[in-house]
Design brief:
Layout: E1 13-17, E2 20-24, E3 35-39, E4 45-47, H1 55-64, E5 74-76, H2 82-85, H3 88-94, E6 99-103, H4 104-111, H5 114-124, H6 128-131, E7 143-146, E8 149-155, E9 158-164, E10 173-177, E11 182-186, E12 191-193, E13 198-200, H7 210-223, E14 227-230, E15 234-236, H8 239-263, H9 268-280, H10 295-298, H11 301-323
Parallel strand pairs: 4-5, 5-6, 6-7, 11-14
Antiparallel strand pairs: 1-2, 2-3, 3-4, 8-9, 9-10, 10-11, 12-13, 14-15
Helix pairs in contact: 1-3, 7-8, 8-9, 8-11, 9-11
């Protein structure tokens, strides 16, 4: 690794102690929406890449931290959504010695992102290019898939352990650092808002599952982390309180969507309007920065309600099938 000066770091980089550095990946050029993290260990590891358009920002931040093209040992993503993993192909090319680690249910989409990109274009339409850019494929030989658990060697007896944590996505893992006790939570705990200190749900379609989400939060409790590192956004020391609040918010949102669905089945607009009115009372308003892109773009009411509705529809269908007598 090259020499670097902590005093001369760019404003995209924040030291967090324990040789861990937060990198603001500058989604669509905006601050404070998506974060990646460098563990500057004997075998340097990047957790989360941000989007494809973020890749130059991440590369320059790593270089400022003394990580040259041949130095990065591992790139790990908590899941394959484009705000977390869209830059994998770009950064794999920029750092050709890095192994890419992902849950097995997401591995094929890193090797061939065409299906993932088609799905994202359907959701995001004209905003796709601004927000995410184009995810490039990664050589399959460089991808290591993990299952229920896995381990990344950080060197010097330090490791990063992965733990399968679905609920937000079927291909989601949490990652805990054996040296610092930091738990990289991806989106499994939701979205943390430093400006207000609140945590809000992230329940997008098609994979949201309340039971799986709550089980993942219980798993995170059991891992007894010292700190939570959110991709949206930043470090949180109040671990048990934050995990408990995340579970509470999930239940509140699901109950509200159930209520709205009971009033007008299948009426998404009604559910969104009702939930928005109710949750506006729960949260402090965010500062008005004048930005066109905010965290509400990625984890807003409409997307969350759509994910919960999709899950409730799926539950109803499964229960209907269970009641169907055999032919």
């Amino acid at each position: 690794m090259d020499n670097y000066s902590p005093a001369g770091l760019p404003d995209t980089v924040t030291p967090l102690g324990g040789e861990v550095y937060e990198i603001d990946t500058r989604l669509a050029g905006y601050d404070g929406i998506t974060a990646g993290y460098l563990i500057r260990s004997d075998r340097p590891c990047l957790v989360e890449t941000g989007t494809s358009t973020s890749a130059p920002v991440v590369r320059d931040s790593l270089h400022a931290l003394g990580i040259g093209p041949g130095d990065l040992a591992t790139i790990v993503v908590t899941h394959i959504h484009l705000d977390h993993a869209g830059g994998v192909g770009d950064l794999a090319a920029m750092f050709p010695s890095a192994e890419i680690v992902v849950h097995q249910k997401g591995a094929r989409h890193l090797a061939d992102p065409s299906r993932l990109m088609r799905s994202a274009r359907t959701v995001w339409g004209d905003r796709m290019e601004l927000l995410f850019g184009e995810m490039l494929p990664t050589e399959a030989a460089r991808i290591r898939a993990v299952d229920e658990t896995g381990e990344v060697d950080l060197g010097g007896g330090r490791s990063l352990s992965s733990h399968y944590s679905p609920g937000h996505a079927k291909h989601h893992v949490g990652l805990i650092d054996s040296h610092t006790g930091d738990l990289y939570v991806g989106d499994a705990v939701g979205v943390y808002l430093p400006a207000t200190g609140e945590v809000r749900p992230a329940t997008p379609p098609p994979d949201f599952d309340l039971d799986a989400s709550l089980a993942s939060l219980r798993l995170f409790h059991a891992l007894a982390p010292q700190r939570l590192l959110f991709a949206h956004y930043g470090p949180v020391d109040a671990v048990p309180d934050t995990l408990d609040r995340s579970a509470e918010e999930l239940r509140v949102w699901v109950d509200l969507v159930r209520e709205a669905r009971g009033q007008r089945a299948g009426d998404l607009d009604h559910a969104v309007a009702m939930v928005r009115e109710k949750v506006d009372e729960r949260y402090r308003p965010l500062p008005d920065t004048g930005d066109d892109v905010t965290i509400d773009t990625l984890a807003g009411v409409e997307g969350n309600v759509t994910g919960i509705m999709h899950w409730l529809d799926r539950l109803e269908q499964e229960r209907g099938q269970d009641r169907t007598p055999p032919a």
